Amino acid sequence: MKKSVKELHAVRAKMWDASMSRHEHYIDKSTGVFSNKFTEKRPCPVCTNNTPAFMFNKEGGTYVKCSSCNMVYLNPVFTAEELTKYYQSNYSVESEIVETDDDDFYSTIYNQGLDSVLKEAQSFTSVLDIGCSSGAFLDLAAKRGLKTIGIELNESEFRLAERKGHETYNDSLENIDFKQKIDIVCMWDVFEHIKNGEVCLNTIKNILSKNGRIFLQIPSSDALAAKMLGAKCNMFDGIEHVNLYGIETIKKMASKCGLKIESMKTVISEVGVINNYLNYEDPYLGDTKNQSSVLGLIDDKSIHKNLLGYKLQVILKR
Ligand SMILES: [Zn+2]
Description:
Elements: H1 5-23, E1 39-40, E2 52-58, E3 61-66, E4 72-74, E5 77-78, H2 80-88, H3 94-99, H4 105-120, E6 126-130, H5 136-143, E7 147-151, H6 155-163, E8 167-169, E9 182-188, H7 197-207, E10 208-219, H8 224-229, E11 243-244, H9 247-256, E12 260-267, H10 271-278, E13 293-294, E14 298-299, H11 300-305, E15 311-317
Parallel strand pairs: 6-7, 6-9, 7-8, 9-10
Antiparallel strand pairs: 1-5, 2-3, 3-4, 4-11, 10-15, 12-15, 13-14
Helix pairs in contact: 4-5
Bound molecules: zinc ion.
């Protein structure tokens, strides 16, 4: 049975509630934000400036904006140790959604991502998906004849991907000794979870073939939906999305790591979500009829033309 986008949002809303009830455990009742037992302060992850401007609290977390480069990030942020514990106890329902992708919502996005990377170099033979979950993206990559490698820290998801025949690792990237350099390294909705993006990109550079490409899909803090909904936007979850890059800050991070942006585009306009919100309804569960444009002014096409979609897809090269 096909799931409508609204039904998908309803499933996500349940997941959200379950996940947010887990936040309670960490919240200091006297302040309403996470207890400093679990967190640490940090400078801007892009420019290292230390003068953040408070944006809002969300589900116990505090989002700030760097007053120098405009990077949006969680500060304070969970310590590495607490984050690891949090993820280990976190059962991912997202992988179930991707596996029962009746609308082909994900496979369409995955295929388009592959198209854009492969367009650049037809000779690519291997792909690594960091945070591959149960391997849905690698399945599509394998169909195109690519050698598929996955990294997944969640053990049950790792087993699923492994059983499908992908070369799969249940370990951190820096601990894995790859036999060969890899042509395409992908991170779908993963990079925003990583506190030190610079270390991450540099580690990837070391395993990338000379002409290789890095593909990132990240939620964009420049998205129209994020800017209009502010704290109400589900991009801001309080714990997991530690770094929310925008157009300029992802460019800055790339250049810091000696990488060039080859292409950049946005996907998922969220016109429906914005319309619900502008009609005083729940942005994710509302039922606004006009889904084709925002107030008759901005449609899908103009949103993506101006890189204002919900997610940014970035291809990086040396
Ligand atoms: Zn900054």
